[in-house]
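Researcher: Let's do a round of design. I'm pasting the structure tokens now; please hold your answer until I've finished.
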């Protein structure tokens, strides 16, 4: 390798050419910065891509207007730019990942595994099951399973989809406010009445404004939903389906009301919180 070719300097450019290069670089970088940071409400990944671009433009400006840097061979300047950008990426990795995780945690709707993959041929494709704690309920094939109809506007329905079991339910708080809806594994949170939630591709957990877990659902392939939760009507009456702390027993149902919420039987969270710092992290 000829090292001399990497560091040999070209002839000094005229001041006019240097000025032209400087003005062009500054103008272009100003446009990029204005669009990225002054106009567009960018997602985290595009925001950091913009900062990386801006960083590389700053390097270009410095190389263009600084003598003798502007007289180094082009390949040397390109190599320096790439190395400095790699250093930038390593240096900002942690804040980037933190912001990306917080952005993902703030979404108000999403999909559990298999959402949208519904059979429409009317044939039997499996036996839907729901597991409450250690108790499993099995339902007749080819019939969507409605678990405890509860109230006319909130219940639990389990179906078999092309990729796995599908959950549909409506979650209200003790005052009848809509906290969340799940429709064939597509979930939506109403943040006015939900303090936090955490999720993975195969699990969703939702807390109401009091910080109580009101829905905990996990996809167990091929045909089962593991489920705990609270279901309220608009009159302040509800039930809690929860796993027993006693290993001799399975799941059980607790009648609850506004005046007596049986806080000794609250559902234990399976995720770590807050989700913006622990997205998708299950408790050990």
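Researcher: That's everything. Go ahead.
Model: Designed sequence:
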């Amino acid at each position: 390798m000829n090292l001399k070719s990497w560091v040999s300097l070209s002839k000094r450019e005229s001041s006019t050419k240097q000025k032209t290069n400087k003005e062009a670089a500054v103008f272009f970088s100003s446009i990029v910065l204005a669009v990225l940071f002054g106009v567009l409400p960018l997602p985290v990944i595009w925001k950091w891509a913009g900062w990386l671009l801006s960083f590389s433009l700053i390097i270009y400006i410095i190389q263009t207007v600084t003598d003798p840097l502007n007289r180094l061979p082009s390949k040397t300047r390109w190599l320096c730019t790439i190395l400095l950008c790699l250093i930038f990426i390593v240096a900002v990795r942690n804040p980037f990942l933190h912001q990306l995780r917080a952005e993902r945690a703030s979404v108000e709707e999403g999909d559990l595994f298999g959402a949208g993959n519904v059979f429409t041929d009317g044939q039997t494709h499996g036996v839907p099951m729901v597991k409450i704690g250690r108790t499993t309920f099995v339902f007749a094939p080819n019939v969507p399973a409605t678990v405890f109809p509860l109230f006319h506007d909130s219940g639990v329905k389990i179906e078999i989809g092309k990729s796995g079991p599908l959950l549909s339910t409506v979650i209200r708080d003790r005052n009848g406010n809509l906290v969340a809806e799940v429709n064939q594994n597509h979930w939506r949170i109403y943040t006015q009445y939900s303090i936090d939630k955490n999720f993975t591709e195969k699990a969703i957990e939702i807390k109401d404004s009091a910080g109580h877990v009101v829905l905990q659902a996990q996809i167990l392939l091929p045909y089962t939903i593991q489920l705990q939760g609270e279901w309220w009507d608009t009159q302040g009456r509800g039930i809690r389906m929860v796993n027993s702390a006693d290993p001799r027993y399975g799941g059980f149902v607790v009648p609850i009301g506004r005046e007596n919420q049986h806080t000794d039987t609250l559902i234990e969270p399976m995720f770590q919180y807050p989700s913006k710092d622990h997205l998708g992290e299950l408790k050990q």
